[in-house]
Amino acid sequence: VVPTTKTRTPRRVLVVANRLPIRARRDARTARWTFDTAPGGLATALRGIATDVEFVWVGWLGADVPPAERPRVAERLMREHGCYPVFLDAQLVDRYYNGFCNDVLWPLFHYVPLPAYQAGAEKKFDARLWEAYKEANARFADAVLEVWSAGPPTENDSTATSKVPDYVWVHDYHLMRLPLELRRRDARVSVAWFLHTPFPSSEIYRILPYRRELLEGLLHADLVGFHTYDYARHFLSACSRVLDVSTTTPKGIEFGGRFCSIGVFPIGIDPTLIRNTLKSRAVRRRTAELGATFKGRKVLIGVDRLDYIKGMPHKLLAFELFLARNPSWVGKVTLIQVGVPTRTDVAEYQALAKHVNELVGRINGVYGTLEYSPIHYINQSIPQDELIAIYHLADACLVTSVRDGMNLVSHEYVAAQESLDQDDTGIEETRPRSRASSSKDDDDVLQPFVKEGPGALVLSEFAGSAQSLSGAIRVNPWNTDELARAIHDALTLTRVERELRWAKLHRYVSTNTASYWARSFVDEFRDVCEHPPLLPKL
Ligand code: GDG
């Protein structure tokens, strides 16, 4: 089904997320603040509909701002960047963000609760972290209400759309109490919430001592949204089991005299941005350079934050097994693995980084030579242009998450497999040549890189994207044997097989885009607010 977009939208949407898309620095000598935009995935996703909707961001700045400087910082951020900061002091951030969000909710929502045999597991849920979470959510509510407008027409602005009040779109597991906190402050607020992670099975969810309070927080929203039907279903069953709800239907839940609608909105990417980047002169040149570097070899790509949900050790172990079983591939295939450091002050993440380093060292030690490393491990973030050049070059992408809300790397890889028009190569030398057909004579000349058909996608069945990317080779990353075979399959599929798979994948990725996601969510939000379901009279 090709998605269609409606065009009715509210005038202003307050996007509330834990972090503002801003990098802030303070000069200690002059006490002067510098703010740069740091657009993350969400900011990029919303850009596509920013022509119809005005977005104002509310969130934490990621920096400790001395109280005396706060009014000035808030005024500047709002005026210069359309961002309204929530100020949280260091101890609150530590307990709310590092503690409750990253150490309690993140693992639980990704099916990694602390194993009961581990000493200290019984102390996992520290009440101080929960109190901090509630407190932080209350601070966010105060900040939202400082910018929220109920939207009565003003003298200067009498257009019909300006009568629409601001809508409040809350993002992610950091802010599950926010709908309730907002409604306590003003019952008129239209509020929706979207979860970027999985919502776990109710069997996992109900471990949480604060299971009831979080669901009650959310059910004050007009709409809650998830990436997949499974997550929505898990949420519905958690509500039925944990709360005394009067009605749950696939469309939503009646609770406390209100109806909270539930929707499924799988996020996507901006394929046009990738296509345009691929066509740029700089990226074509870079792809050609990399094509020359990896000449005569197949390339596998992995791009992950260094997070335990991404299953990087699972991928490395399977790659090692693949090399052990297929000695003829040694020297002929390289895995480029980007592992972007994240939450580096947390013990679990430090242990993961160490484990990955050891695995990479072991595999390169056993299978590497002076001329060849089976794994190129890049333990830092790389520029977007470089990333897209590698995607384009790679013969297969390995996504092996043990759980992942959606996983946008899988979408980006598919988009970057488009073959490019050879008329405009972007580099001076125009004689196209594929990596495999290189000859010694033209080694010194930079040749444009030409793909021999699209690459293959190996995709964990535990990533949300596996539910829609049916052209992928689906794997259970815990099954090392199966994953090693999938790597072999990905490298040996015929061109026709790869093209057939890619056509399916590309059709999905190029229609279910980030703009489509944002537009569908905002349209549904408006629909449920304008036409709230009628509740039965008691
Ligand atoms: C959360 C959920 C859900 C990565 N390394 C570099 C780089 N990246 C970019 C990728 C991609 C993004 O980061 C990662 O997105 P994912 O979706 O794969 O994963 P999370 O960061 O865990 O995001 C996830 C998502 O929210 C959206 O709802 O899909 O399930 O966990 O865009 O390209 N970008 C650059 N250099 C890098 O080194 N430039």
TrEMBL record:
<keyword id="KW-0328">Glycosyltransferase</keyword>
<dbReference type="GO" id="GO:0004805">
    <property type="term" value="F:trehalose-phosphatase activity"/>
</dbReference>
<protein>
    <recommendedName>
        <fullName>Alpha,alpha-trehalose-phosphate synthase (UDP-forming)</fullName>
    </recommendedName>
</protein>
<comment type="similarity">
    <text>In the N-terminal section; belongs to the glycosyltransferase 20 family.</text>
</comment>
<feature type="region of interest" description="Disordered">
    <location>
        <begin position="420"/>
        <end position="447"/>
    </location>
</feature>
<dbReference type="GO" id="GO:0005992">
    <property type="term" value="P:trehalose biosynthetic process"/>
</dbReference>
<dbReference type="GO" id="GO:0003825">
    <property type="term" value="F:alpha,alpha-trehalose-phosphate synthase (UDP-forming) activity"/>
</dbReference>
<comment type="similarity">
    <text>In the C-terminal section; belongs to the trehalose phosphatase family.</text>
</comment>
<dbReference type="GO" id="GO:0005829">
    <property type="term" value="C:cytosol"/>
</dbReference>
<keyword id="KW-0808">Transferase</keyword>
